[in-house]
Design a protein that fits this description.
This protein is α/β, with parallel strands linked by helices and about 425 residues long. It contains 13 helices and 26 strands.
């Protein structure tokens, strides 16, 4: 099994190009199923989850051509409406074919999903939203089995909880529903806006994406289009935190600063100089040790749960005490025990972690427990004395494109070994 080895002590400096967003590209690849012609998606990152989604689309019968950072999906040859357990178990986003298959073909069977073990993420919200559009859905034999007699019907639906995935699934289905659909308490993430932009380029009529109220005027069919995926705000934040932790100066290029307000505010609070120039974001610590910051995760536009582990790593070596409240996922402190192995001072009480910064961490063997935890351990390794060996890095490749090469180009001593 592959491992990443980090030799700590270096100060990061330079530029890093940000890849397309994992959390945007996966629903966009799924929404291609709604089209009546090929859809060309660019700025596609090379991630394990992207390859899994391509396999899923191929398994459904779609044509998929992947060249560089462009993936073209031709949905006209789709012949299956079943997403099997073998693929869905490794990636929760596979459930996002449910809405498109149901809306386009009137039938869908999708295995109950897997993904990172960071807490309960029930599909009930997806199911209730699709039922509001007239779908008949049962869960049996480990599958969500959905069908619709004729076209789905537009409706007003209020999500019980804010859910990115459920908003995406119902939004995609509503695009081909008959009449008007109004989604209340919808997720407001930038990835929702990107999905709506892609749908509108395909001929959908969607307004309000990025707000809590999205209105969809259903259309009879959608055509092909070209769409470029937005920059990955979590990858951007991860590299900027790496700069702050090492006292360095890093510029993230091809980024989307407007999607990172909460993260950039916390970096400034930690003592970083943050300069925005178009699509470039520069963090400069001028060699200083960061200050501890308090974090409370919440749905966008508040602080993202996907950046919590990285800021916990920052607090581990910061000056002062930082309190982190995780309000999204109940199991998202699994990286704490691994950070403790490196010498961190962390106390956890329920959904709250109190981190007392120490002047030095010490390298040790650690194990990644989920995608963002993997990144936090690499960040900690960058500032630890000696060698940090991170095992189970297959999580990492689900959401970061060539992270060791990108960090290496900034001056990190990092390598991947078998």
């Amino acid at each position: 099994m592959q491992k990443i080895i980090v030799e700590g002590g270096g100060c990061l400096s330079g530029e890093v190009r940000i890849s397309g967003a994992k959390n945007a590209v996966l629903p966009i690849l799924c929404v291609t199923l709604l089209a009546d012609a090929p859809v060309r998606v660019s700025n596609v990152p090379r991630l394990h989850d992207v390859l899994t989604t391509a396999k899923l689309l191929l398994g459904l019968g779609a044509g998929v051509v992947h060249e560089g950072d462009v993936m073209t999906v031709d949905p006209r040859s789709v012949s299956s409406h079943v997403a099997p357990y073998e693929l869905v178990k490794t990636m929760r986003a596979s459930v996002l074919v449910l809405g498109p298959l149901l809306a386009k073909y009137g039938v869908a069977e999708v295995s109950l999903p897997g993904g990172c073990a960071i807490g309960s993420r029930p599909v009930d919200l997806h199911i209730k939203g699709l039922q509001a559009l007239g779908a008949e859905i049962v869960v049996e034999g480990g599958f969500i089995k959905a069908r619709s007699e004729g076209r789905l019907k537009g409706a007003r639906h209020v999500f019980e909880l804010v859910s990115v995935g459920a908003t995406e699934n119902v939004l995609m289905a509503a695009a081909l529903a008959e009449g008007t659909t109004t989604l209340e308490n919808a997720a407001m993430e930038p990835e929702i806006v990107d999905l709506a932009d892609c749908l509108n380029a395909m001929g959908a009529k969607i307004s309000g994406a990025g707000s809590a109220r999205i209105v969809v005027e259903g259309v009879e069919k959608l055509h092909g289009c070209e769409h470029a995926v937005i920059a990955d705000r979590i990858e951007t934040g991860t590299f900027l935190v790496a700069a702050a932790m090492t006292g360095g100066r890093v510029t993230a290029t091809h980024a989307r600063p407007d999607t990172l307000d909460a993260v950039l505010d916390k970096l400034r609070e930690a003592g970083a100089e943050v300069v925005i120039d178009g699509t470039n974001i520069t963090v400069d610590m001028h060699g200083k040790r960061p200050r501890a910051v308090n974090i409370t995760t919440a749905p966008h536009p508040a602080f993202p749960t996907d950046m919590q582990a990285q800021f916990m790593a920052l607090n581990c070596i910061a000056d002062g005490v930082g309190v982190i409240n995780e309000t999204i996922f109940e199991n998202r402190f699994m990286h704490v025990n691994e950070l403790l192995r490196l010498g961190a001072d962390i106390r956890v009480d329920g959904h709250t972690a109190v981190v007392r910064g120490v002047e030095r961490l010490s390298g040790a063997p650690v194990m990644a427990t989920d995608l963002r935890a993997s990144a936090s351990l690499i960040l900690a390794g960058l500032v630890a004395d000696g060698e940090t060996v991170i095992d189970r890095i297959y999580h990492l490749d689900r959401g970061y494109e060539n992270i060791e090469a990108k960090l290496g180009a900034l001056g990190a001593e990092i390598r991947r070994v078998d």
